[in-house]
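User: Structure tokens for this complex, please. No commentary.
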Amino acid sequence: MPKIVDHDKQRQWVAEAALRVIQRGGLEKATVRNIAEEAGLSVGSLRHYFTSQAELLTFCMKLIIERIEERFSSLSLNGPVFEDVKQVLMQFLPMDEDRTMEMEVWMSFVAKALVYPELRIMTDHMYDGLTKACHYVVDTLVAHKLAKPELDLEYEKERIYALVDGLAIHHIMRPQQLPTEKIERIIDQHLRSLCLDDKAMA
Amino acid sequence: MPKIVDHDKQRQWVAEAALRVIQRGGLEKATVRNIAEEAGLSVGSLRHYFTSQAELLTFCMKLIIERIEERFSSLSLNGPVFEDVKQVLMQFLPMDEDRTMEMEVWMSFVAKALVYPELRIMTDHMYDGLTKACHYVVDTLVAHKLAKPELDLEYEKERIYALVDGLAIHHIMRPQQLPTEKIERIIDQHLRSLCLDDKAMA
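Assistant:
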């Protein structure tokens, strides 16, 4: 009887192996041979699942985005509103090992996407997601009347967006200088600065 | 008579060629052959100036840092104080072609430094410079009594630091979404938010 292999599961298995290889050695180590070895497959069968390196990398990026989306759908946002919006932002920050690994690998993709436009679709997808999250955060604070009425909303959305990405990069580059507790404190303090004094704690 | 070649100038010439190669094709295109061709030199003479790729890349990173330092030393900081500190931050942002090119190439170095610790010395050097600039900005606002007295200075320094890097990355990834005018407006607005209302305009 022929062995039945779940094609989608196998692709995911390969992509996860690729992410580990990239984290350890960067994109230049993401050769078919290295990834096949890490996945415990032959080079031939790896080529069966991914016909080009671009296809494999795009799949890896999609996998990272899916993981973030999964974390989102499992978030229990049931208040207080201030804590909920904070939780939303924290999903994009390297607060644990998984998220740190994702960010580290993602940095390589971002650098590569600067010169390979075919990878832009995925980086744009990620940036759209983070942009949406930042809009959600500001709009939710406004909708619940927690936000100071004088806020320049467009500016606040861009500011949170830049702040989140800047903190993420500084943590993965120099975790000692910017430990996760400090990231959380900065996000918390920043969000509070957008809120009416008596409302943020409610 | 033997040809006299200025060794330092020639190294700089090679590094500049390397930066162009990296900007066009990313680090993976930064091979000895490609860089020699771009510089109009033989592979042999390039090897004479740089004995390893790590040495060449480190030199390229140093070149970028030197360029930023040169821009700094030519800044005429003679007030108003608010405009001066803004100018300091703008040196780290991709406001023109040169700075955009530097940032794009730097992104590749940062991604590579995550897996090659020998490149960390240079990324640390850059991050130390940006950190120092952020401290300077906040401390100067305080020293000139422009800053709101209730500011949490340590937090404000970290926040500016993250903001500058986040804005820089978002511009090089998606210049249409975050044009330079918008970057300047965000930096301006952020700095104003740290100042006493009547002082920022002075």
